[in-house]
């Protein structure tokens, strides 16, 4: 049992002790958990204020940590400490003490002061011993507190962690992984190390408090065997969990994509018993997670609904009401409560862009459900959606600071944002274009990629920043920079210099970048017809592919599938466009598996085109539907013309328009023309819907342009039919559409 502190002795120290003793007295009160409003603490704070300037850096850091322990982050005294650190920063040489101070004052510092602290930390980093894990951990914590993803500093801290694996306990690993995720810093080496270290800890913990921490930290990184072991142990102690532990576990199970129905049922039972103890934000987490885990209990969801409604009636905080509305919108109902809509409407003037986006996503869900249940409230919801649009545009038009605008937009997602507000958003960024620099250029690049909106002025600005400030840009930022150019199929005026500098920046980090990031980079550059040999050699070798396989085990299933698809597409692009690199094609089995389970159906426009092609060419035997080309491109329709432009028939085959069969060539890498009669040509038809084009102009996006390029290399003549032409007034009749197809197949003037 803890002994009571000798408060009389501590108070006596205040009368005569020097500054160091005063700080020591404050530290002792922290250890004894004395309340912040205790007269002793107030006396210590008063005396410290008088002597603060006499504290050396070590004493000042100890004292600031004590204030932080008392939650006095925003106190005038902490402000005074921040001022002293600012004035004396040049003379500080002890990074250990400075790292403590940085955390303590992080809530009070300006952007300029933050930059000074980061620069000073970089200068002092080489002065610390490589075993100082605690100092490195505090630096990462500071960067998280101020939301600063300073990659060079994070890399140096990461090296300290990797070289001191045995000094990292469960809490340290947990906090580092959380900070890395928040700062979007991806260290595959640290994740592998953490996975190995945490797996070794599984037999060591048999108490729920510690095992829950291990489950939550290791679960999302674990392979199948480790997941099974974690879930089995958690099942045994599930009934001992507190409400907060059960919440942590169920959220981790969502990240793990768990399908252990017994464990899901046990944890849901604990959640159900404690639903009234959770905050609105936690109720949103529970709703999202149980839906993701396909938990079938109507009883739990009905109680959730009742609780969410009851909270909504009394809540006054915007953030809470956003969470409650979002959770309610996930629970299908025959009708939407008008009181909920009225509550949202009343809040709109107080909302930032992030709140407005979340509300709109909820309203869109309600509209969807009301269509399902034929409800009468859709008109009111559409009016609310219009008001959300109005307030969003108004807020965007008033934006005059890039950083503040970005803070509101960075988490925006959903159809509503892209459909209704994207033009105003792009216009706002164009007005603030001069504020784009090396610190935010990757963020704006990622954002533009999500909008599918081609703004040449913004992309030209991104390219100009890269050309002018490449020495300040970290290699981890290059993917975000290149992505919008790749997706939107745009070459900046200084294309060669821009891509050359991007590759120059990447060169020194080809061996340290995350494997999946390197794959995405390679594919993005290939889309733009840029094939750096050193990047391709870094990807297409046995060691890298083995590392990628290891990483795929710990990625979510959706991300893992996307990475594998991009690797295949990159492999295909290199084989077709750079045969001189002699990189083998090794995706036959992958492609066959993909296409065997991906037998789609024709939409209305495709069925129209198929029937008209059969009529124009002389019958169904003259056109093939749903062909797989060499290297496994899906070709919607195909025909062959001889050297006199006459259609050649295929063998007898039946096509069901709803679900066409896949047709494979004899060889998966055979050039198309090699199997044709002399002078004949094979024509591929592709209907391009709105997804193939930029949102604002009929400009073909990168993947569709690359497909056309590759089919032409394979020997096809490619006829792409844009949706806006096929569905135009000019082609509103059958005769007009037949003439359109004839002209594309046989050339101008053909009747």
Automatic annotation (TrEMBL):
<dbReference type="GO" id="GO:0016301">
    <property type="term" value="F:kinase activity"/>
</dbReference>
<dbReference type="InterPro" id="IPR013584">
    <property type="entry name" value="RAP"/>
</dbReference>
<dbReference type="GO" id="GO:0005759">
    <property type="term" value="C:mitochondrial matrix"/>
</dbReference>
<keyword id="KW-0808">Transferase</keyword>
<dbReference type="InterPro" id="IPR050870">
    <property type="entry name" value="FAST_kinase"/>
</dbReference>
<protein>
    <submittedName>
        <fullName>FAST kinase domain-containing protein 1, mitochondrial isoform X4</fullName>
    </submittedName>
</protein>
<dbReference type="GO" id="GO:0035770">
    <property type="term" value="C:ribonucleoprotein granule"/>
</dbReference>
<feature type="domain" description="RAP">
    <location>
        <begin position="683"/>
        <end position="743"/>
    </location>
</feature>
<dbReference type="InterPro" id="IPR010622">
    <property type="entry name" value="FAST_Leu-rich"/>
</dbReference>
<dbReference type="Pfam" id="PF08373">
    <property type="entry name" value="RAP"/>
</dbReference>
<keyword id="KW-0418">Kinase</keyword>
<dbReference type="GO" id="GO:0044528">
    <property type="term" value="P:regulation of mitochondrial mRNA stability"/>
</dbReference>
<dbReference type="GO" id="GO:0003723">
    <property type="term" value="F:RNA binding"/>
</dbReference>
<dbReference type="InterPro" id="IPR013579">
    <property type="entry name" value="FAST_2"/>
</dbReference>
<dbReference type="Pfam" id="PF08368">
    <property type="entry name" value="FAST_2"/>
</dbReference>
<keyword id="KW-0496">Mitochondrion</keyword>
<dbReference type="Pfam" id="PF06743">
    <property type="entry name" value="FAST_1"/>
</dbReference>
<dbReference type="GO" id="GO:0000963">
    <property type="term" value="P:mitochondrial RNA processing"/>
</dbReference>
């Amino acid at each position: 049992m803890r002994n009571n502190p000798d408060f009389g002795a501590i108070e006596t120290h205040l009368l005569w002790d020097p500054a160091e003793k005063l700080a020591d007295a404050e530290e002792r009160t922290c250890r004894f958990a004395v309340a912040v409003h205790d007269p002793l603490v107030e006396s210590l704070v008063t005396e410290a204020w008088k002597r603060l300037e006499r504290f050396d850096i070590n004493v000042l850091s100890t004292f600031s940590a004590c204030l932080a322990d008392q939650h006095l982050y925003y106190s005038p005294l902490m402000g005074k400490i921040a001022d002293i650190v600012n004035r004396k920063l040049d003379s500080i040489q002890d990074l250990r003490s400075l790292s403590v101070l940085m955390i303590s004052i992080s809530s009070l510092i300006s952007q300029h002061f933050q930059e000074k602290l980061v620069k000073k930390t970089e200068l002092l980093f080489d002065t610390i011993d490589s075993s100082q894990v605690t100092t490195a951990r505090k630096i990462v914590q500071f960067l998280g507190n101020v939301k600063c993803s300073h990659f060079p500093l994070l890399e140096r801290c990461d090296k300290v962690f990797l070289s001191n694996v045995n000094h990292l306990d469960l809490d340290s690993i947990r906090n580092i992984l959380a900070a890395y995720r928040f700062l979007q810093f991806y260290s595959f080496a640290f994740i592998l190390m953490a996975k190995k270290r945490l797996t070794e800890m599984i037999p060591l913990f048999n108490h729920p408090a510690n095992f829950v921490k291990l489950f939550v930290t290791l679960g999302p990184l674990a392979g199948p065997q480790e997941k099974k072991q974690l879930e089995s142990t958690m099942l045994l102690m599930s009934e001992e969990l507190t409400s907060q532990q059960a919440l942590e576990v169920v959220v981790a199970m969502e990240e793990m994509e768990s399908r252990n129905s017994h464990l899901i049922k046990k944890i849901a039972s604990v959640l159900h018993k404690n639903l009234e103890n959770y905050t609105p934000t936690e109720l949103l987490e529970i709703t999202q997670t149980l839906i993701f885990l396909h938990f079938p209990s109507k009883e739990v969801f009905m109680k959730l609904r009742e609780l969410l409604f009851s909270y909504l009636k009394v809540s006054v905080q915007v953030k809470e009401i956003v969470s409650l509305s979002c959770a309610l919108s996930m629970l299908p109902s025959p009708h939407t409560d008008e009181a909920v809509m009225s509550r949202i409407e009343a809040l709109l003037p107080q909302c930032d862009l992030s709140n407005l986006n979340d509300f709109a996503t909820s309203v869109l869900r309600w509209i969807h459900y009301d269509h399902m249940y034929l409800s009468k409230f859709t008109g009111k919801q559409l009016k609310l959606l219009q008001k959300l649009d109005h307030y969003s545009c108004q807020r965007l038009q008033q934006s005059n600071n890039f950083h503040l605008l970005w803070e509101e937009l960075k988490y925006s997602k959903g159809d509503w944002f892209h459909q209704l507000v994207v033009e105003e958003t792009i216009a706002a960024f164009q007005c603030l274009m001069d504020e784009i620099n090396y610190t935010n250029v990757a963020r704006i690049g990622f954002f533009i990629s999500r909008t599918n909106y081609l703004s040449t002025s913004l992309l030209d600005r991104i390219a100009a920043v890269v050309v002018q400030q490449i020495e300040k840009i970290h290699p981890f930022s290059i993917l975000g920079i290149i992505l919008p150019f790749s997706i939107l199929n745009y070459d900046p005026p200084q294309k060669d210099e821009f891509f050359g500098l991007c590759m120059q920046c990447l060169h020194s980090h080809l061996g340290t970048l995350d494997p999946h990031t390197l794959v995405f980079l390679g594919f993005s550059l290939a889309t733009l017809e840029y094939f750096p040999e050193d990047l391709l050699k870094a990807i297409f070798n046995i060691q890298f592919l083995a590392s990628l396989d290891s990483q795929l085990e710990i990625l979510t299933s959706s991300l893992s599938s996307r990475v594998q698809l991009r690797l295949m597409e990159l492999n295909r692009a290199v084989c077709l466009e750079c045969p001189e690199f002699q990189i083998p094609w090794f995706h036959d089995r992958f492609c066959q598996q993909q296409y065997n389970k991906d037998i789609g159906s024709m939409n209305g426009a495709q069925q129209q085109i198929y029937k008209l092609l059969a009529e124009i060419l002389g019958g169904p035997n003259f056109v093939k539907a749903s062909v797989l080309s060499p290297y496994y491109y899906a070709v919607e329709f195909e025909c062959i013309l001889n050297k006199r432009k006459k259609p050649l028939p295929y063998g007898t085959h039946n096509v069901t328009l709803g679900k066409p069969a896949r047709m494979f060539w004899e060889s998966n890498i055979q050039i198309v023309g090699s199997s044709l009669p002399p002078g004949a040509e094979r024509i591929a038809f592709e209907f391009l819907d709105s997804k193939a084009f930029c949102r604002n102009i009929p400009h073909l996006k990168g993947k569709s342009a690359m497909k056309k390029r590759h089919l032409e290399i394979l020997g096809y003549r490619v006829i792409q039919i844009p949706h806006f032409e096929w569905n135009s007034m000019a082609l509103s009749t059958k005769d007009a559409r037949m003439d359109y197809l004839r002209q594309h197949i046989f050339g101008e003037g053909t009747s």
